[in-house]
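Q: what does this look like with F0G bound?
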Amino acid sequence: MNLKPLQSQTIIEPFRIRSVEPIRFTTMDERKSLLEKAGYNPFLLKANDVLIDLLTDSGTGALSSDQWSGMMASDESYAGSSSFYRFEAAVQDITGFKHVIPTHQGRAAENILFTTIAKEGDVIPNNTHFDTTRAHVEHNKAEARDMVIPEGKQPQLIHPFKGNMDIDALEETVEKVGHERIPVIMLTITNNSGGGQPVSMENIRSVSQIARKHNIPFIIDACRFAENSWFIKTREEEYEDKSPIEIAREIFSYADGCTMSAKKDGMSNIGGFLALNDDVLAQECRSLVILTEGFPTYGGMAGYDMEAVAKGLYEALDEGYLRYRIRSSAYLGEKLTSAGISIVQPTGGHAVYIDAKKMLPHIPPLEYPAWSLTNAVYLLGGVRAVEIGSVMFGLQPDGTEKDASMELVRLAFPRRVYTQSHVDYLAEVIIAAFEQRKNLKGYKIVKAPKVLRHFSARLTPVEP
Ligand code: F0G
């Protein structure tokens, strides 16, 4: 037989499913009442009342059979468990950092880092601080300063690395503020709050050079390091032939440490770490870990959590997985774009971000257009998304409100959970909201806490 090899255009899910979890269908009337009871805040809905949950890609992924088998064989010793040493070896192998401090999740690593190094009057530069990162910086009375490149703030503009740090702004900040008031330079890969956009290797190198020149530690927020590595491979020419793990190793080689939420590219349901090269800083951080997380060989994780992370970090770097992962977001992005919906371009790694400011010009920023769209997709299709706009970022430390630079709705994909037909359905729901956009109303906040208000605020629709 003389058969030509198949040139398939379809990138299929690189796994088969052998354990399933039913999802629950509700009617639109049910959802109306459920949303009202939840104070019009999707965070306050019960997960069982959600059909497709795209609230976050954090801790929501499916574990592999290999991870489960490692978990069954975990060592739950309080001190010196072999699961810790497997976890430590994996982190060291991929990041190259000397000290690995386990934490229960990413923000715990942030808490330990910033409590140790930040004080009043300090400035922390970052491309864009994620909300918990910003909250930890501000909790320690330091200033969190975002300096992503200007292209990163224009949703429709196509640029391969919209998560890049504005190098001129960074240099100017270091000159003006002085290195003694900058305890650390951070870089978030991928830039979650800026649309899940990647940072180029060239930019990482430049940030590193500035940090080294001024003797300032350079710490990477590495939550989505594997996805960022894939974007470097596919968008930065000289990395085309490198494997994701080689790219990841090079990224980390330019930094002095990282904070990590293993709930993202650790492919686990919980876990995280702070990794550092500096012996003295690591010692100080370890003392704090004992106080807040647990003994430094488990740091708030069970032995089986550490096993899941040790395997998950490698699975996240698998080429077949990354190709499918990044293609899934692009696939949804293409469907929305061809229906005329504006999204952050190009699509990011873990999520698709809809530009609600563009879709809903009749809703003023402080009536929260992105929040309104988030509620509409729940009402129409039982889909839970998250607002990244003025509810999340609008409240200033002095208690005043300022509109966020972008009003986005994030549809974040849990890892290895949903299939292509889920994505097709999703597109239908969002397009239905778009078609009825003129009927969407703004919201006002009825009650909210002073920090991280989006998690628990209660809102109500604005009546004309
Ligand atoms: N840094 C980034 C860039 C993040 O996206 C997150 C979490 C954290 C730090 C904190 O990690 O949740 O383990 O404490 N992002 C989740 C999200 C919550 O939905 O984007 P954590």
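The chain has a mean pLDDT of 96. The first strand starts at residue 52 and ends at 53.
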